[in-house]
User: Fold these one by one.
Assistant:
Number 1:
Amino acid sequence: VDDDGQVTYKKRPTNEIMLAIQLGIQNSVGNETQRPYRDLLTQDFGVLEIVDFPRDGGKFTVAHSITSFTFKTYAPMAFRHFRKLYNIDISQFLASICGEELEELSNPGASGSIFYRTADDNFIIKTVQHKEAKYLQRLLLQYYLTLTQNPRTLLPKFYGLYCYQCGSKNIRFVVMNNLLPSSIRLSEKYDLKGSTYKRRAGSSEREKSVPTFKDLDFKLLHENGLFLEADMYNSLMECISRDCLVLESFRIMDYSLLLGIYNLDQAIRDREASGLLSGRHTAAAAASSSQDPVSFEMETAAAAGGSTSAGVENRTSGQVGLQRGLSVKRISLFNTPIESINAERARDPVDMQLDEEALFTSGGIPAKNSHGDRLFLFTGIIDILQSYRLFKKMEHAMKSIITDGDTVSVHNPRFYSDRFQLFLKTEVFKKQPDASEPQESLSQ
Ligand code: ATP
Ligand code: CA
Ligand code: CA
């Protein structure tokens, strides 16, 4: 926030950045659709498309109300193929990003990046450092190869890399898949690395309505971990192993598993409690609620106010949406965690209540906590644009390795990956021993 009370990033007002992003992407997509689709060539990965946006409008650009700027699209042809790989229709991409205002998210990270989420929940836009953008450019061809071989993955899906240049300032950003649906009120959210060193959410983070907790918080709150049915557990672990091998091969580290937990039974309890409080707990209400435990949580982002700030962060518990029977808008085939890990849906949908089915449709991975509460997990790997090479330069200087032995999150990629996997496989996710009697087997 600057002296005039305006929110800025690199001294640019964030609302100008948002508008520039929208104008830039709209133009970039327009250019793209004019070109015929063709096979990808190696040189496509090195292309940089540069367009000037004078305030009064240019030959190919519209007039606008913000400071004149230049917009750059990295490897447009390559990203076009990425989007195709994930069944993202270009008109939908355009509508998601440019159709409505973007919602700025508060970032718990230390990097100072700004995050935007599209109103329809489909995409996240994250500003990245120069080094990270360079790294992604270098990585792109190999990353593309990896994803083509194995589209079922929890690795981030990058749908575009751009740069907004205004004066001497360059603001680079990526468009990627959104992992946490804002239409579902998550009970908890974790950023997990498998490290314990400084891995506890800070006090300002804790004050948020849904804070992003870290490894140590998880250990405290879920001492026994989260229980998955055997098949689900195996699919998830296989997926994580494969993804980690890829990251290790790229010598990437310091990534996290982002994990959002929706607690279905807690939501039901909360609602019953709020029903009691407000005196709505009549027999009729109880009857209708028993058929309808979840849909009160289910709203489309648009119904929730979309571009306004009425998203997850600001919703208080007990506040209920009125939309019924709406499913979460999802356009990408592989965006949902359940599809990412290539798992069969565990239970017969016919057995499930209608609203639970709606949650399934939104793609959460079914799990239970140690109390037997039914959970749906939303998860994926994030923040992968840091390679060991960059790290060594940065962090060795800080002497963090010496201070805390093997619990420091800065190590070589092999060590990082092993520790990350071990933590997830043994402490975060557990195989449910007996699906028919989960209660007994859980309470040791
Ligand atoms: P740092 O480098 O300090 O760790 P950063 O600015 O690089 O932070 P990330 O680690 O990428 O940021 O992400 C910060 C937070 O933003 C995450 O903990 C998560 O809450 C949210 N976030 C990041 N990526 C996504 C995504 N794809 N979908 C939903 N939320 C995301
Ligand atoms: Ca991070
Ligand atoms: Ca980062």
Note: The chain is about 35% helix and 20% strand.
Number 2:
Amino acid sequence: MTDLDHRARDILCRNDRGGYTVPTHGLYPFQWNWDSAFVALGFAGFDRDRAWQELETLVSAQWADGMIPHIVFHQHDEGYFPGPGVWATGQTPPTSGITQPPVLATVVRRLWEEEGADPAHPRMRALYRACLASHRWFHTYRDPLGNGLAMVTHNWETGRDNSSEWDEALARVDTSGVGSYQRRDTGHVDAAMRPKQSEYDRYVAILQFGRDCGWDHRRIADEGPFRMIDVGTSMILLRANRDLLILAEAIGDAPAAAELRARIALSEQGMDWLWNEEVGAYCSRDATTGASSALVTNASFLAFYAGVGTPARHARLIAALARIEAGTRFLLPSLEAGSRDYDHRRYWRGPIWLVVSYMVALGLAEHGEAAWSERLRRDSARLIEAAGFYESFSPETGEGSGGGDFSWTAAMWLAWCG
Ligand code: 2M8
């Protein structure tokens, strides 16, 4: 084991709060949904029981309607805004009222296969049921166009919180009733790395809409102030449906398998709507106006991970990757340099996030693009080697940004790039 292996394990153990892991000390003091899924991959290399437990603790907070919340507030901490009192979801344990990208089923499949793929595996079977309920929730509440794509009703649901893809839709959000509140994030890290205040007001306004309608997910989906078809969530859900289908078949759950096959076919076709021929990439679209973001982000390349696209489209995506590579030092930036509001230090408007790079690299390898996949892996390793286990990294300088000793970055070192 190398020194970095030791440090990565140590970060996961120090961020462990007993059955779940915080993304980083201070800035994010609770359990986050997709962070935990990636963190389980990190634990899996040295503590199998703890890996499964991370996922089990997450789904212990699943709502009765099937939604797996984006934050679980297991213990009190004043250091984060918005905390449980602001969300006011009435759940036990307290949670936020929105979700995050459903990477869970894909991780469950990987852990289960690593342990011999026994259909009777009790921990896999319990998590299978949780994933199925969560995917059904997406299909019931988050497919307004009936085309198998996933709508998000808050930009925090995408995980790529302040991506420029959301700017136009966010600009329409009325912030006149937001009132005053105290942000906590800028007390932990440099404000130049975080979303701007005007953006935060909009995030809070969308939250308040959900709270004011008692977290009625039907109403939020139909009438909410932010309704985006997110390319990232749509691709991740499609991949997760494929992985869940493998589990359904192993278990012998024929009705669920048939349902999943139909969903997969629908989504494969639905993705056409996200393809922007002019840009040569899959881009998010506004569900209300139909407008394409026309922006190439790291999520555009999740097409490989989801297994969608024709050879011609793949060629254009690879051309976009080559263009991005030519314009920066490290892959894969969250937004192409030169795009409007690109900023190599500001959160999801440029910095590299290794969890997205990992999913893209996996997809590229599965589509015969081994050299590109390896390039992403190597760049990710170099970033950690030079800067440490940061939340994100500048694609231009390689410097770390956001929180330090970050759980999912440590997990990616252990499970992928290290
Ligand atoms: C960031 O998001 C949270 C809100 O969910 C925040 O900024 O307060 C995002 O990077 C998100 O993708 C991530 O899950 C979370 C915790 O790492 O932080």
Note: The chain has one domain: 3-417.
